[in-house]
Design brief:
Layout (H helix, E strand, L loop, with lengths): L8 E3 L6 E3 L15 H13 L13 H8 L6 H18 L8 H9 L25 H5 L4 H34 L2
Antiparallel strand pairs: 1-2
Helix pairs in contact: 2-3, 2-6, 3-4, 3-6
Length: 180
Amino acid sequence: MTTPSNLQDEVCPDCGVVLPQLSESGAAHRYVGASPSCWQLFSYLLNAGEPPVAPGQLNPLLLDAYCVQHHGTPSPQAVNSVAVHALALHGVLVAGVAPENALWIRQQALRDSADKGKHGRFYWLEPPELGKMLTVADIVNAPTPAARSEQLQAYVQSVWQAWSNRHGTTLAQWYAQYVA
């Protein structure tokens, strides 16, 4: 695990990135396991486009990759979040669904079925080791919009690779059962 270089730094528990601690008491997401500074960096990148990123094929999967990487701790919400976002990655990167249809995959994965509602169908997937994936800081630290887009593409792929190496069979089964 990475350690802070000074007392004003904090380590994100799920991706390991070391970032300056927020001066105000920034809140992270309720069940996404990011540090406040990592969550803020992601939020700016996703919502405000700051810093800007050039168009890229996998840009629509930034949310999915981040939520899978920032798995949190076992809870019904965290379990469903990781499963649904990992299934979106699987659908695009393995099953060939267009990236702009990731929302459709997420909706399919959570739709109620006659035999089993949306709660309790997924279970906790043990996360990969820290340091196996790029982080949103790698995207933000790239010098140009085009370079940030390249990093974003690599980020999505690195998150998918780490999780699919560990849980690819389970994700393929869930995709066949709940999405396809």
